[in-house]
Design the sequence.
């Protein structure tokens, strides 16, 4: 008989991830705040439940893939939270949240007899569907070992960052920051080229094939060169949340991050200008505007 | 009988480049301000001359690989400059200089009956030695075609950016800016990780194998993770020169570059603190210091 | 018989303020977490109590002058908080706190039948002693009128910013930001002068007598010119708290503040370097260091 | 018989200054590139000449009040320059130029037997008309003494910064930077207030009467609060030139100026957006735009 996994959060990322679990032969109990968004999974074999608590079983595994820290904390320990129902089970937290939230959740689970494994992921929705996510883990070794087969069903590689609950989240936040920094730098370089009579795409193409021949520069280079920001792969408003988590973490650990801080202010401007629903690479629009381009 | 190439500037980059020309069967006439630095090339078969003018022959090719704009302009059109001696020949300018300087040189050569091809390169000294440079070109088509075999002897690929003399320089400067931006962003991320108990090298390793699996992040990630800044691969003082050329060009073309500008100020600080002789990736030291680390 | 005022928080600012109330003829009930720090006031006639709740009387006035938002919220509505005891009375909140905290406190007081008046102040401890504070108010008109005589005993002027509970705090935070921005700008200018052979004090003196002949430039210009940061007039660690509140408020209201954000990162660096106990004008030290001085 | 002063540059500042010299009883010989702009002065008694050289007389005094470094250098030592005609006379250079240009001019004058006194001014055109300029001087003592009566006819105070020809220019540039930094900081603070429901003018008014009760905050606070940028008092394009001179000087003396550098990029954006003709306080428009306001 197949093991049952609880899965909370079936948005752009969570839905294809839950489907991969079904394909790998797991039984999946799904909770999503907006129930309608989980219907497609139900027709693929998932069972839909009414509250977060219902996805959990003693000694079971519950995965969360939600939009922010508050949503994770509420589904775990709010009204009808699944945390108290885990008894011996493991919360595999795959959302992008603050390391401090991870530490707090780990402590709460311990109080209730459950366990916490951080397993945030890198990859856009198409990578989630293709099982091409990179998964960073941290937490207690025994529990990471137990959830490993489940994670193997979701990604192309698992990289471990030790026992501290928040460590994997530091890496995830750092990665999002590196992506955003690369995006802004490309936006500045492409705009410089554009105003000097060189096509943005020619620049993206050159660097993506040579010095920066890697997934992020190739993908984001193309987005920024072609100014392709809609529909979003990852919403700018969530990107602002993430870069703000980076800076909160940096403040708590007394690490000035001048470029990160500059980027946060520019993401904030993008939101203020009504671009929160675009792809986060639309941070590049401000660079063009500041240069007097449309 | 083999064609003769004039070569001016046999520093860390120029020396292995000139050697590759010799290996490719060209006769090479070398001028270097500090004559002693060119001796090794002489024993490899190059002929050493006393003035820039002597490297040029009518209809010939002269390559410059020098530290800054002023050096290129002086060797071309200063006292004993080679420019007037080119008569029908081509100046292949491979140094990192301002697009505006390229335009000025191109115009001057035209006045004197010579031609100008911009051909700045990407790659550190070891890449120069291994013929692994990436060469960006711009200038008149006919002349780019004529110098192509010579460039083929120096790099792994030639990418063209059109007829404007300064275009290739815009790309070269943009590339150096992108490298510096990536370096600073990694320095911020690694320092955040370090102060959260995660090894810098673990972070560099992860990103270099996944999202940023490309030469620049792998090389500079390692430098910054291991704080390996001495001996320099590319001197920080020259890096400050380059990022300043980026900003000069951006100012002339009315393109605000907020991250580039922030990096310039930090490179300036590194020079003020006596680090101009280190590798330019030592911009990362300021990030550690600002976080209260040694 | 004189009216009784409750006073919570007798630090560098609170102590001279409470003393001025005594001098103006008010009876003053004092609570301070560290009781010893309030002894001097006791010998001046104040009565010391053991809990925040004891300073309050129905329909009375309670002033808070504390280090941060959390301290204000705890003394008002934590264990033994004075809030529930106000019944019809007014909480005059004079600390530098977030506008959002002010709104929250105002709502809570309303629930408990009390009222909230924001009255943050500008001025260093010597100004507090000399009744030279500037007091910004916001809140319901009736209640502001009732507390006006009390505020008159503390400052040289009261400026009102309307009925929104948090408005005065926006002004207070803005003011602290303007001071910090002026300090950093002077630090940059003085360091430029210094490295060009001009005495820092000559520059401070000139601007303080001409274009910037006003209290802030004169005082902070002198601090920064003479590098006089110890003992602190206002601790740098508190300054970091304030500039962070500015940015939190700006983020909530979607206002990018690029200079404020840059300053926050530099204050964070000062704290990381162990300067949190110095005067906040010590933000200037980083400017000198970045220029290779010291 | 009255002394004759040569005066070059009768723009918004130069015209009222030259008029004050006439009023003080000096004979004034005027050269302006656009001759028509000097007609009004002619009807006030000035004599108009056709070339810069004609304003000079041996042992005489020539004042320049021009838009940029290049204009000063050309009128002094270009074709028909007045420099060689000074023979023993003094060039009083009152424009805002780079300290390096001042040093270069001083050296050239010495070669030709003339002298150079730096005397840049603070004040807008209305202050020039009202003899309310602040004048900073540097240069050789003897020559500063000789020109003092002339300067007394132009300003409300003369402040000396020693013998180095460029010192007064460092102060002038620093002052313009301080003004711009204050303007940007106010723009950020006022926009924060605005989005929190507080009138911009109320904030400007409060600070202008209390902490920042000085000319710059009062004037620029009003401009920025009322968004009054046209007609310009000082053109933004010239402001960009000045902040760029600040940064050039800072780079040459190895002084990182992070706020100045951020402001330069924002001024550049303002120019790119077609605002070069507005008052330089229009740097504030970008703050409003970045916050999503019109």
Sequence:
């Amino acid at each position: 008989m197949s093991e049952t996994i609880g899965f909370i959060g079936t948005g752009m990322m969570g839905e294809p991830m839950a489907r991969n679990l079904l394909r790998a032969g797991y039984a999946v109990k799904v909770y999503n705040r907006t129930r309608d968004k989980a219907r497609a999974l139900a027709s693929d074999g998932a069972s839909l439940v009414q509250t977060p608590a219902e996805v959990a079983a003693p000694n079971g595994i519950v995965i969360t893939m939600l939009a922010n820290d508050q949503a994770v904390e509420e589904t775990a320990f709010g009204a009808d939270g699944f945390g108290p129902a885990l008894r011996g089970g493991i919360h595999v937290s795959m959302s992008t949240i603050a390391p401090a939230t991870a530490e707090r959740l780990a402590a709460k689970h311990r109080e209730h007899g459950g366990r916490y494994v951080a397993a945030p992921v890198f990859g856009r929705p198409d990578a989630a569907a293709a099982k091409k996510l990179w998964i960073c883990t941290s937490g207690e070794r025994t529990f990471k070992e137990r959830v490993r087969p489940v994670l193997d069903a979701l990604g192309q590689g698992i990289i471990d960052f030790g026992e501290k609950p928040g460590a994997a989240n530091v890496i995830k936040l750092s990665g999002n920051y590196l992506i955003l920094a690369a995006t802004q730098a490309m936006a500045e370089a492409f705009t410089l080229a554009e105003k000097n009579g060189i096509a943005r795409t020619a620049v993206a193409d050159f660097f993506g094939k040579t010095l920066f021949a890697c997934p992020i520069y190739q993908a984001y280079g193309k987005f920024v060169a072609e100014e392709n920001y809609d529909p979003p792969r990852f919403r700018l408003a969530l990107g602002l949340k993430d870069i703000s988590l980076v800076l909160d973490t940096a403040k708590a650990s007394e690490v000035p991050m001048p470029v990160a801080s500059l980027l946060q202010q520019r993401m904030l401007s993008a939101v203020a200008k009504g671009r929160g629903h675009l792809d986060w690479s639309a941070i590049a629009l401000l660079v063009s505007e500041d240069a007097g381009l449309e």
Summary: The mean pLDDT of chain D is 97.
